[in-house]
Write a structure and sequence with these properties.
The chain is an alpha/beta fold. It folds into 3 domains: about 70 residues, Arc Repressor Mutant, subunit A; about 100 residues, Periplasmic binding protein-like II (D-Maltodextrin-Binding Protein, domain 2), CATH 3.40.190.10; about 110 residues, 3-Layer(aba) Sandwich (D-Maltodextrin-Binding Protein, domain 2). The radius of gyration is 23 Å and the shape is globular. The strands form 3 sheets. Strands 3, 4, 5, 6, 9, 10 and 11 form a 7-stranded mixed beta sheet that branches. Helix content is about 45%, strand content about 20%. The protein is built from 12 helices and 11 strands.
């Protein structure tokens, strides 16, 4: 584990308050102050300053915060790797965005478990931003995410392409059409994923690249759950832009329909993301397995 003083500093930086940091760590406010003072004396710099009722990082504090987070992440990953070294049942944590975690990975993990009976994969399913945050916090060993992200921040490998399609109920007026324009789509009641999701970001980027403004969208609802979104569209409350992967069974059962948008194809990448070389053996083998299935 990292030094308690660094952990205190990380907590203060996140909560912006000595009292809240103490409550989070279950230590007193004077103890928090002592830890910060000890760090400032050791590094001979000012790490924090008061801005109204909140504590803000100085330039030096921002630099220490960056390295302290990395130390905390490495500490968690080292602990997991050492535990797995001697354990009969090894455990790894994989983060996935909602489409991948809900419709792609479950089948793959099931097959992986049959081949590697001594390995447990704990799946975390959240949106792209949350998965990247978990990776940097040391909460997961690797992630599989959809859509755009800052590739300079992490190691990454493309998994495959995914197509986003227009989906709607068989009772929707679009169901009588063989194709449709993006202008007509934007004027309809759009039920979209929440901001921060890979699906939403890809669609928005495609619109901007085609000369549209985000304000051109007639957003009827924003939904964090894919299942809830699909249910709303199936109930003919609006249309959506969604991964074709997520609605395969609905298209097969004719509970949803899709038609092409004229001159407006939408594709995105699924990418594996990870940091450093810890647990690299598992990461490489899991990536290879995913690519073979």
């Amino acid at each position: 584990m990292i030094d308690i003083k660094l952990l205190t500093f990380i907590t203060v930086a996140k909560t912006k308050n000595f009292t809240r940091a103490g409550d989070t760590l279950n230590i007193t406010q004077p103890a928090v102050s002592q830890h910060i003072k000890a760090l400032e004396e050791y590094y001979n710099v000012k790490l924090l300053y008061k801005n109204g009722k909140e504590m803000e990082l100085t330039e030096e504090g921002t630099l220490l915060f960056k390295y302290a987070l990395e130390l905390d992440r490495l500490s968690k990953m080292i602990k997991l790797e050492l535990e797995n070294k001697s354990a009969i049942m090894k455990k790894y944590y994989v983060g996935a965005t909602l489409t991948i975690g809900g419709y792609v990975l479950p089948n793959i993990i099931g097959k992986y478990r049959k081949v590697h009976e001594n390995i447990d994969i704990i799946l975390h399913v959240e949106n792209t931003e949350a998965i990247i945050k978990k990776l940097f916090n040391g909460e997961i060993n690797m992630g599989i995410i959809e859509g755009p992200f800052d590739k300079s921040l992490v190691k990454h490998k493309k998994y495959r392409d995914d197509e986003l399609v227009l989906a709607f109920s068989p009772l929707h007026p679009f169901a009588r059409r063989s194709s449709i324009s993006i202008d007509e789509v934007l004027q309809d009641k759009l039920i979209l994923r929440e901001k921060g999701s890979g699906t939403r970001k890809v669609f928005e980027n495609r619109l901007l690249a085609s000369g549209y403004k985000l304000e051109d969208m007639n957003i009827y609802m924003e939904i964090g759950s894919i299942m809830a979104l699909i249910s709303l569209v199936e109930s003919n409350l609006g249309c959506t832009i969604i991964s074709k992967e997520a609605i395969k069974s609905y298209l097969k059962d004719r509970r949803l329909k899709t038609i092409p948008i004229k001159d407006f194809e939408i594709y995105r990448e699924f990418n594996f993301i990870y940091l450093g070389d810890l647990n690299k053996n598992f990461i490489n083998k899991f990536i290879e397995f995913c690519e073979m299935v």
